[in-house]
Write a structure and sequence with these properties.
This protein is α/β, with parallel strands linked by helices. Among the domains are: about 120 residues, Isoleucyl-tRNA Synthetase, Domain 1 (Orthogonal Bundle), CATH 1.10.730.10; about 60 residues, no CATH class; about 250 residues, Spore Coat Polysaccharide Biosynthesis Protein SpsA, Chain A. About 40% of the residues lie in helices and about 20% in strands. Helix 19 links the parallel strand 15 and strand 16.
Length: about 725
């Protein structure tokens, strides 16, 4: 029987169904005013493995997963002051219900692609407001909640068990945890909202005995879990961020209402990090499933990746590890495919089967040791167990793993013409006419098929999306994978270096204008395609095929600006490097004047748009002036490549572009170089889309953080400023 870590008892406990034979499980489901990110999906995969593990023990699992379509009370929404997607949809005249339905459908699609067994019910919060009000009213009657000005609050001090899940018991902890909400109507700042009065103009609202309003966040899960599973049920799941305040609140509500313990086992999944840090939209690392699919990677490779870490440990997602998972999954499928042609009609060996099944099940039952179960599967794959026994065991393993490995034969089916080609080829091979046999293989490969010869037979299957994708061009997943040419000699006079991520029209304008004014100089244009997904990558490939002076480095997903620039600079081979932003257009010969200026050994950086400061806290642009500056803006930033080993590469902690140019300029200044602007350089600035498409709050936040990074490093280096330099 499955044993799970219970956050409530802080112990690993056996799941003992309250009703024999049936396990009732509730999973905190998605908030549907945005896509679920892959971290959210990891927590649904955990619930799926719990369910599958229980079903392997012949238990019936009743699984409920709610849909949060009243997201108003969520802290993140309060903090962000609204959501851009929602705002855009509203601008198109969509109702909140339509938006919620749209994201609900996408969520269900994601679950399907990940082979997550659908819950029996996906109840929506908006359909259960009467149930929420019923609980709220009873809590008020019992003296556990109070009403003020149309709001109803749970009075935390009245519920003895408050804090038993999260351990947030001391008043200080709680205050710390709820500090974002400062509501003068609350008797105690720890109290949380059950019902909130509707403000003027609110669309989503319901009548209640204390006036029109809408429910708090935690109450929906009390109402829906009790409605569908009763006031005693077995397992409740969510991510660790749900422990407090969400689940702590849910316990207070549900137990205050039912008068007894409601949930036996609370199971929480640890977070998925991305590129080593918490996922956040503003960091550009909040990936969704379609980001994975866009790279030709099977969503089940993500499922595989999640199997490699136990649910209660953090897992760091990188595209490098995801691709490794994709390759492993493909290898596994190919093995299954070959075994199915090697059984020779023999049946599985019952004793071997039961032995391996026992080993597998005890790993799964051991607090979902999926990494162990996966390792056992590979051990089996590489063992000398007979193919038919392997197939039978893999079918059993896959009931829990859910990798769809035994569907391979269906996925690998080919049209009859292809089968005919293969038998022709076999005839040629039989006659030892290998030239003809090879040409058939080559033409099948061109039409998208893989031919594999073995001692027993020749097999053919379609190439997977992933294999097709691998044939297009090489992509890197991280900076460390990209080789550095920094120690190599100059190969050309000039490098124009560009980091591009989408906005094809801008990229094209920028690249074409650079080529136009480079004329027949000894030059190269190096573009880092930083995870474009709008066709910019293909356009760049096409352009590079036509003009050998263009070199493109593809990154499979957008890296931070610091990393992208580091890749760019590691790859440049020109004596002089001119970095240009895709929002600018070269409108005349900038290259001659730049090369001329940089002949002066005291000058480190030149470009048209300088910045000055007198105190490091406020930079202002050179306002069309030329001469000594304190920093050069990234729109056009030129220097000698040989300086890089001395000043270093830009810092990768700058994920967002803003103020990275200040920081990089100061690296030159710190080595004693001057930053000199030439305002006459003919460069036109067009709309800077990366900036203009950000909401104001995001701009402020991201800029402020980067400025902090800059000041942390350079805040006490006022000595470097032009205004403090001795004249002469
Ligand atoms: P939400 O849509 O924000 O309500 O989150 C849905 C589920 O995903 C909740 O159970 C969260 O606890 C969980 N979750 C949120 N972020 C992550 C993450 N980075 N990794 C794993 N699970 C997460
Ligand atoms: Zn919940």
């Amino acid at each position: 029987m499955l044993r799970l870590y219970n956050t409530l008892s802080k112990q690993i406990e056996e799941v003992r169904p309250i009703e024999p034979g049936v396990v009732k499980m509730y999973t905190c489901g998605p908030t549907v005013y945005r896509d679920a990110h892959i971290g959210n999906l990891r927590s649904y995969l955990m619930a799926d493995w719990i369910r599958r593990a229980l079903e392997l023990s012949d238990l019936n699992v009743v699984h409920i997963k709610n849909i949060t379509d009243v997201g108003h009370m969520r802290q993140e929404v309060l903090e962000q002051g609204g959501d851009k997607v929602i705002a855009a949809a509203r601008a198109e005249g969509k109702t909140p219900a339509q938006i919620a339905q749209f994201y609900t459908d996408r969520f269900l699609g994601d679950e399907l692609k990940l082979n997550i067994i659908p819950a029996q019910e996906f109840p929506k919060a908006t359909d259960h407001v009467p149930e929420m009000l019923e609980i709220t009213e009873r809590l008020v009657r019992r003296g556990l909640a109070y009403e003020v000005g149309g709001n109803v609050y749970y009075e935390v001090g009245k519920f003895g068990g408050y804090g038993k899940l999260s351990g947030n018991i001391a008043e200080g902890d709680l205050l710390e945890a709820v500090r974002v909400e400062a509501d003068p109507l609350k008797r105690d700042p720890r109290d949380f909202t059950l019902w909130k009065a509707a403000e003027a103009g609110r669309e989503l609202k319901w009548p209640s005995i204390c006036g029109e309003g809408f429910p708090g966040w935690h109450i929906e899960c009390s109402a829906m879990s009790i409605k569908y599973l009763g006031s005693r049920f077995d397992i409740h799941t969510g991510g660790v961020d749900n422990i407090f305040p969400h689940h702590e609140g849910e316990i207070a509500q549900s137990e205050g209402y039912a008068g007894e313990q409601v949930v036996n086992i609370w199971t929480h999944g640890q977070h998925l990090l991305a590129d080593g840090v918490k996922m956040a939209k503003s960091m550009g690392n909040s990936f969704i499933l379609s980001d994975i699919e866009a790279q030709g990677i099977d969503p089940l490779a993500f499922r595989y990746l999640c199997l490699t870490a136990q649910y209660d440990t953090r897992l760091n997602f990188t595209f490098t590890s995801l691709k490794a998972a994709q390759r492993a999954l493909l290898r596994l499928r190919n093995m299954v495919w070959q075994w199915s042609f090697q059984t020779n009609g023999s049946s599985a060996d019952a004793e071997t089967v039961s032995q391996w099944q026992g080993r597998f099940k005890s790993l799964v039952d051991d607090n979902l040791n999926m990494p162990g179960a996966l390792a056992l599967m590979w051990e089996l794959a590489h063992s000398d167990v007979s193919p038919s026994t392997k197939l039978e065991l893999l079918t059993y393993f896959d009931r829990v793993l859910g990798l769809n490995i035994t569907n391979v034969l269906g996925d690998y089916a080919v049209p009859s013409e292809v089968v005919n080609e293969i038998s022709h080829r076999s005839e040629h091979r039989g006659r030892q006419d290998y030239a003809r046999a090879d040409s058939i293989r080559a033409s099948l490969a061109d039409s998208g098929y893989v031919v594999q010869d073995s001692s027993a037979a020749t097999l053919v299957r379609p190439k997977t999306d992933w294999e097709m994708r691998q044939e297009r061009w090489h992509t890197y997943s991280s900076e460390v994978e990209v080789p550095s040419f920094m120690d190599e000699d100059d190969r050309v006079d000039l490098t124009v270096g560009i980091v591009a991520c989408n906005y094809l029209d801008d990229v094209r304008r920028c690249v074409e204008s650079a080529f136009k004014w480079l004329g027949d100089r000894d030059a190269e244009v190096v573009v880092v395609d930083n995870g474009s997904s709008d066709g910019t990558d293909e356009w760049l490939e096409g352009a590079a095929a036509e003009d050998k002076r263009l070199r493109v480095i593809h990154i499979d997903h957008p890296l931070g600006e610091g990393s992208a620039k580091r890749i760019l600079l590691k790859q440049c081979l020109g004596k002089t490097v001119v970095m240009v932003d895709t929002s600018v257009e070269v409108e005349g010969d900038i290259f001659g004047p730049i090369e001329g200026a940089l002949e002066d050994e005291t000058i480190g950086v030149t470009g048209p748009f300088g910045l000055r400061t007198t105190d490091l806290h406020h930079f202002h642009d050179g306002e069309g002036e030329s001469g000594d500056m304190d920093a050069m803006q990234a729109y056009c930033f030129a220097f000698r490549r040989e300086r890089l080993n001395e000043v270093g590469l830009p810092r990768q902690t700058f994920r967002f572009y803003r103020n990275l140019d200040l920081d990089f300029s100061f690296q030159f200044k710190a080595q004693g170089y001057r930053i000199v602007a030439d305002a006459r350089l003919p460069v036109a600035q067009h709309e800077h889309r990366v900036w203009s498409e950000l909401a104001e709050a995001e701009r402020d936040e991201l800029s402020r953080k980067n400025y902090g990074r800059f000041l942390d490093r350079w805040g006490d280096r006022a000595d470097l400023l032009t205004c403090n330099r001795p004249k002469g």
